[in-house]
């Protein structure tokens, strides 16, 4: 399993943005080159077939334009992963999560079944398509939604209709809300709105804890679910909460407790969760809410292997896009679990799965900014390759094309941000401290230039709007899109030059220490 998600509500960010962010991590020994593109309506398929599932879906004929980060090599499918559409809705899909045996027995996943034999032969059985999954989700969802709420609803409808072959967590954001959606078994799902003043740190494990059935089946202000969820839960005895008093279920909905712990009911509690998942949530929550006494003291209530840290927590200070990027690149900095650190032992430094891992393909920090006009609202910060060594480019999402530097070829080249950052990671990792200052300066400078690009471009377009030369509420205004595309290109050019320079410095540092070095004064 792979990926780490970090979601932030609008009142917990420095500029009022909603933030949907995630590391897309490959499976073990997997390094998938990624690129960032714009899919224009004319390029969106009307009939879609998944490579993994062989499932064919007819799609609506009115798609919105959207950014995404697909595989550079499409032979295994699109895997569009993350993006922002022309309605200023963000989507991140997916966080691979876990479900327990009770859930999977009650609603099995819908796996692809290959054909048996050949047509005309005795005993021939045709193939049976599987459900939908990570490969498919942004492509069949993001172009057709106009709010975060609509995203959760459409995805729920798709899963109810087609089923899914895997368990996933998916996030949606708009200028007001962030919704987090989880499928429960093959056809059921739940979703919960991130409180406006909170963040959610989500590793590879079903994470939603407290769930309100009355709201999910009624007003849906903060919760949503598949319509038959209560009956399905009751039919399969899935609830695991102990009541406060014997015989006391409290307020009920359709014979079930109105409030129940979805994590205890649906998720896994295994040694693998303690080793692979819990430490990531612990580190992010401990870092963002250090004042919480449950993380403090010689015997804290919450430690690296704690499996019941609250789903949503309130940060001690507001977060920015660059904060989120840095957190998703961390290797438990400053702890005994940091593989690059000096604390602890060789064993503790590799005890837990890191957040900023070697096999990160890309990290997207999707910001929907409510305090600027509609045409400027969506910003897709994209960082390619391993988090401790890369930078993020602040790309305006309301464009029809993106810089070529982000369009990754399948073979290694220094004309690609992905491959340059992969090279930086490969060269910098063996001599982390020697390269640290150079790489950190590169990261700081390039992300600062991203903010500068946003500030200057916003101001330029505001001035043009005052002169009547641009309509900032029109997502298709030609002057706006040309200006945003020019800003994206200028930033990409600057980052390309600085990445090349950083790569050269790290290469020099690396080669100075080669084992076959021999100088005239070495004898």
Cα-to-Cα separation, first versus last residue: 52 Å
In the predicted model, the low-confidence regions spanning at least 5 consecutive residues are: none
The overall average pLDDT, rounded, is 96
* Principal-axis shape: globular
How many alpha or pi helices? 11
Largest sheet: 7 strands, antiparallel
- Which range best describes the helical content: under 10%, 10-25%, 25-40%, 40-55%, 55-70% or over 70%? 25-40%
Strand order, main sheet: write it out. Answer: 18-12-1-2-19-20-21
Helix and strand composition category: alpha+beta
Compute the gyration radius: what is it? 24 Å
Binned strand content: 15-25%
Number of strands: 21
Topology:
Layout: E1 4-8, E2 18-25, E3 37-39, E4 47-49, E5 56-58, E6 66-68, E7 82-84, E8 90-96, H1 101-106, H2 137-141, H3 148-162, E9 168-173, E10 178-184, E11 188-193, E12 199-202, E13 210-212, H4 213-217, E14 223-225, H5 229-235, E15 252-253, E16 256-257, E17 259-261, H6 262-266, H7 271-288, E18 312-313, H8 321-327, E19 360-368, E20 378-384, E21 392-396, H9 417-428, H10 432-466, H11 478-512
Antiparallel strand pairs: 1-2, 1-12, 2-19, 3-6, 4-5, 7-8, 8-9, 9-10, 10-11, 11-14, 12-18, 13-17, 15-16, 19-20, 20-21
Helix pairs in contact: 9-11, 10-11
